[in-house]
């Protein structure tokens, strides 16, 4: 018998639990990341990995205790790890139990902007043929309450949804009336440029506790280039809308996000400085979408995944410095990834779900009465693709979710079972996102080695792991502040210990 075989069969007192591992580019000796099914992780040296596999870990050392506590090994007859692991796994996958919680109402395609990266074809301002009808809106409210989720978010999109404010009013009033008996926890969000905002709309928003989400792509020169209007004052009017919402409703009632064009990648510091100057506490550095109308502008606006990663790392470094100097400004996507990495809880973010969140977690009611499993699926219409339509708003929810489209999405929506993902150490923190792969590669599974989604998430996750393990305690504390939503002054002085 070989020496290796003898080591494997030698009684050691512990057994292995399932884990995945990967070698990270790192100057540190212990550069092998191992992850458990529960999402817990640890770093090992090459020698320690061999000792783990061949069951040679010293039972009296710290390494043994860490591996035992984090569910990489267990001691038969001494303790049963399965109840603890099941509880953690259930928590991480808790989003599966609620049903669709995000319900998006596309109330119009009309818009006063001509954004080059827009994902939907815009309709002329006076063309009400692309507005949601009162009948379709009422049916969508019925579908919303067929979801068993105790927490619901109703989001209005367009076009510019405020141009169809009467339809927004109808939906919110119908939902509020129905909820007197349903007793759900419901939040209303209007995704708007804020340009058409008037006092009547603000009065209504104040009465019904409505939140606003807008787009701010950076300082004036960048925002006005990315989001032009005929009057060439998009930036100024957006800031005016933000100011009016804050004055009437409060600072927490308006948030903003940025979409990055190739020009945006040249100005990470300027974009971040703009968000600090405007008093926001969160920024979302979103790459361009591969969907819909934006696809036609890709040659002018697009950039490689590597270009985006380089920009993101530079922006993250600057963001950490800004936070260290006293401001609080978190990056939205990093906060989601860090929550997946460092807590046993799910963010519920659709793109990072496994099983996939499309349909299961979100439904989109288009202006024409069609129902889609996600906003991205709706945007495929602009590419001549209507294959991901669930059905019509007149159909009951159980019928929509039993469609062949949902079978397709879910069959490709479990990352732990996908080729290239099943053995990836980062899979506990990632998602499947079959709709992005369908859009980019024409296949909901896709070829993960060529997947922009995988490249982006692998780079960002490994970079965050590197920052958490580095010697810079200030960086660690900033990242921890983003998931705890506390300023540095409120965090303990000790750095992260992973």
- SS elements, strand count: 16
Distance between the termini: 39 Å
Estimated share of beta-strand residues: 5-15%
The helix fraction, in percent, is 25-40%
What is the spatial order of strands in the main beta sheet? 12-10-9-8-7-6-14-15-16
User: Overall pLDDT, averaged?
Assistant: 89
Low-confidence stretches: 1-11, 292-300
Q: What form results from the Cα inertia axes?
A: globular
Notes on the structure:
- With 498 residues, the chain is of the alpha/beta class.
- Helix content is 40%, strand content 13%.
- The protein contains 19 helices and 16 strands.
- The chain has a nine-stranded mixed sheet with strand order 12-10-9-8-7-6-14-15-16.
- The relative contact order is 0.10.
Task: Summarize the model shown.
With 498 residues, the protein is α/β, with parallel strands linked by helices. It has helices spanning 3-9, 46-53, 62-69, 82-92, 134-146, 165-182, 199-208, 220-226, 234-249, 268-277, 298-301, 305-324, 332-342, 375-379, 397-400, 404-411, 434-441, 452-469, 473-484; strands at residues 15-16, 19-23, 32-36, 41-44, 73-74, 102-106, 151-157, 185-191, 210-215, 254-259, 282-283, 285-286, 330-331, 362-365, 370-372, 391-392.
Features:
3-stranded antiparallel β-sheet; 498 residues
What is this structure's SSE topology?
Elements: H1 3-9, E1 15-16, E2 19-23, E3 32-36, E4 41-44, H2 46-53, H3 62-69, E5 73-74, H4 82-92, E6 102-106, H5 134-146, E7 151-157, H6 165-182, E8 185-191, H7 199-208, E9 210-215, H8 220-226, H9 234-249, E10 254-259, H10 268-277, E11 282-283, E12 285-286, H11 298-301, H12 305-324, E13 330-331, H13 332-342, E14 362-365, E15 370-372, H14 375-379, E16 391-392, H15 397-400, H16 404-411, H17 434-441, H18 452-469, H19 473-484
Parallel strand pairs: 6-7, 6-14, 7-8, 8-9, 9-10, 10-12, 11-13
Antiparallel strand pairs: 1-5, 2-3, 3-4, 14-15, 15-16
Helix pairs in contact: 5-6, 12-18, 12-19, 13-19
